[in-house]
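During the first year of the project, the team set up a workflow for recording each protein of interest as an amino acid sequence followed immediately by a discrete structure-token representation. This format lets reviewers and collaborators read both layers of information side by side without switching files. As required by the reporting guidelines, we include two representative entries from the current panel. The first entry is reproduced here exactly as it appears in our internal archive.
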Amino acid sequence: GETNRGWGSAGDANEGLERLVYDSSKTPFEMKAVRAMPDGFEIDFTNPVDLKTANDLSSYNVESYLYKYHPVYGSPPINKETLKIRGVKVSDDGLRARLVVDGLRQYYIHTITVDGVKQKGNPTSLLHPIAYYTLNSIPSGEKLPMSELSTKNSSNDKTTSVIPGGVKKPTIPGKVLAPSKNAPETKGADANTAVANSGKTAAPTYDQVKGLLTSYTCIACHNPTKKLVGPAFSEIAKRKYSAEKIVSLIHNPQPQNWPTYPTEMPPMPQVTKADGLKIAAYINSLAK
């Protein structure tokens, strides 16, 4: 009863319709509703949250972006920004959290990620931790004063690390401390690890780049071996492009190179060079 035929393609995953029977005695931990506020967003939860994680700003992330409206198929996110979360106020019953966010942008899509909040009484995370909100208008009304907000951010806390020799020292994120004078000298195989790793690196497998291909929506138009909206990765590999050239073509496609494909690929400038080189290494590994 299932099929692997996707939209405009053969697809590579079995999908289908399944009948689900709702068990009202077990309410999943989810975001029940998300509302725009004058200074951010308000989130309702289906079950009470753990106050420690819900009052921690590192549990949340908010980004905003737009899509380009143009005649070619699809668009990468553009004008993407990570917004600063100034504070959070959690209701006494733990069923609501109000985020105060700087830099809300009207008409932009706002991605609200709540992957650090746990359920009260157990370590369960949200079943679906990401909400998408198109902010067509920013509501007017009262803004929360900073005195009512939690501004704790555990990602900024000092941590303690153990360095060789068993000596503990406080560390600050982003700073590497020198080893203790009493630390044992590293010899033998460990000392030669960097040299051993300096050789030729094996090309990544499909499973290793699948996350990148998904996040950058490459798999919407490309398949490792099948022609979809765009050419198969194996066909691109036959062109013998260098990795740098593939990255260049990702950022600035040349549709004249593929005249038999009527749908032009849009520019993908959001693909970082590092990620593009990983994808290129995988594509070139398919050359026969």
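The second entry, processed by the same pipeline in the following quarter, appears below.
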Amino acid sequence: MFWSILPLAVILLVVSFIFLTNVGELKHPHLDIFSVVLSTLAFGGLLYGFSNASNMGWVSPLVILPLIIGAVALVWFIRRQFHIKEPLLELRVLKTPKFAYSAIIVTVINSALSAGSIVLPLYLQNVLGLSAFQTGMLMMPGVAASIIVSPLSGMLFDKFGPRVISIVGLLGLTGALTGLAFIGPATPIPYLVCIYVLQSAGLTLANMPVNTWGLNALKNEYIAHGNAISNTGRQVGGSISTAIIVTIMTMVTTAHQSAGPVLSAASGIRAAYGVSAGVAAVALVVAILKVRPDKSKIGLETETEAV
């Protein structure tokens, strides 16, 4: 399977070398090696600890020790970024409230969905007994929904601002994950397809407008740093949440082994989606409370339309 992806990766690499050009001013920042080491220990330790919890239990030394090392290294890493001239991550941009809330929402969204790409195929194959090909075909409408909604979200953002679009998207996303928290061995396939389409469309509606809203609050020279923080939040939040949610799913599945392999797997998957829905609800609440359109820009757009 992985070999089939290699030609696409090579094509993408070649096309990138040919067509991608630098549009910004090039700089030559100093790479702080100690920050790289600290970030590796921090994120690697946390991920390793959470990943081991499903097999070894939360009191195992191979869970507790990596979590402690990761937490200490993370605090040290954050403090160091505020005290060196050229930090690996310019965390000072988080002092801009709009960007800080944007980064939180985007990280939480990806944390809620990170396990979905693992859990749904497991459900379709282990609970419903579908083949890998059938699983891929059933997930294609969700991909199509993302492709269709993506350009629409940009146009809607320009017209209405971030608030309405992000809240609608997060309502759809949270509702879809909540719906998946009640699936079982007898769940109809059309229901799953519709829910997955709603999840994909909700993600696309919420993710891009919120991220753009946050980056727009930064000065031009800090946008690259803002992108770096947002991407780091996505990756780290997604990785750690995947480890935690899969751990919960495994523990619930093990606790229901007496019900048989199919029903126990369904119980674990429902628990995983329940946690994911709760995480998505946190992003929804933050969006409702903190995402506000830029009134000056809306007023400017209104004046332009009037002219």
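For the second entry, the following points were noted during internal review. The domain at 93-306 is CATH 1.20.1250.20 (Growth Hormone; Chain: A;). The chain is about 80% helix and 0% strand. Both points are flagged for discussion at the upcoming steering committee meeting.
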